[in-house]
Design brief:
Radius of gyration of chain B: 14 Å
Order of helices and strands of chain B: EEEEEEEEEEE
Number of helices of chain B: 0
Number of helices of chain A: 0
Largest interface: A-B, 27 and 20 residues
Structural class of chain B: mainly beta
Helix content of chain B: under 10%
Oligomer: heterodimer
Helix content of chain A: under 10%
Order of helices and strands of chain A: EEEEEEEEEEE
Chain lengths: 111, 113
């Protein structure tokens, strides 16, 4: 059984650019959640996808969007990057309502 | 609105000491509570998960308790080691709504050799 993987590991962008982060769910998992963790803070819930549909959203603007694919892998897209978007982005997968497993994260730096 | 607070924000202890990390939450309507460990710049490692109907969970030198009515959880670490140095995060899953976790800001632990 493979774990949750994320790519890339690190990423540097400039203000105003767009970025796509990827998450590969653990085998058999159909639910993916994305979290943003700013330095020194706890992770904040961005949104969740269940069977390719958005299933809940936290307090993030529409420039944060996502996709879940038929194989249940997922993307997080952020448009018009701002300096405050610099953070560790974590994804977590689960099968339905079961335990969530977190990936290692993608470190995004916006200059 | 659920809020999770962790005290202290940072803690430094000598090796071998037993220690307690605290977590409080404002809404007792939770499905479960989970303690995580996070090493610098890394992802989250789940340590213990306590269901709302449970009072405590144990794994090796770790013991977590839950008092839902008072909105508190503690993580007890016995005989601390330098390898325990990390940030410890507490997170609650609300009993209704989207399956998500609400995290505290963590306790940064340093165990001195």
């Amino acid at each position: 059984e493979t774990g949750v993987t994320q790519s890339p590991t690190h990423l540097i962008k400039t203000r105003g650019q767009q970025v796509t982060l990827r998450c590969s769910s653990q085998s058999g998992h159909n639910t993916v959640s994305w979290y943003q963790q700013a330095l020194g803070q706890g992770p904040q819930f961005i949104f969740q996808y269940y069977r390719e549909e958005e299933n809940g959203r936290g307090n993030f603007p529409p420039r944060f969007s996502g996709l879940q694919f038929p194989n249940y892998s997922s993307e997080l897209n952020v448009n018009a990057l701002e300096l405050d978007d610099s953070a560790l982005y974590l994804c977590a997968s689960s099968r339905d309502d079961d335990t969530q497993y977190f990936g290692p994260g993608t470190r995004l730096t916006v200059l | 609105k659920q809020e999770v607070t962790q005290i202290p924000a940072a803690l430094s202890v000598p090796e071998g000491e037993n220690l307690v990390l605290n977590c409080s939450f404002t809404d007792s309507a939770i499905y479960n509570l989970q303690w995580f460990r996070q090493d610098p710049g890394k992802g989250l490692t789940s340590l213990l998960l306590i269901q709302s109907s449970q009072r405590e969970q144990t794994s090796g030198r770790l013991n977590a308790s839950l008092d839902k009515s008072s909105g508190r959880s503690t993580l007890y670490i016995a005989a601390s080691q330098p390898g325990d140095s990390a940030t410890y995060l507490c997170a609650v899953r609300p009993s209704s709504g989207t399956y998500k976790y609400i995290f505290g800001t963590g306790t940064r632990l340093k165990v001195l050799a």
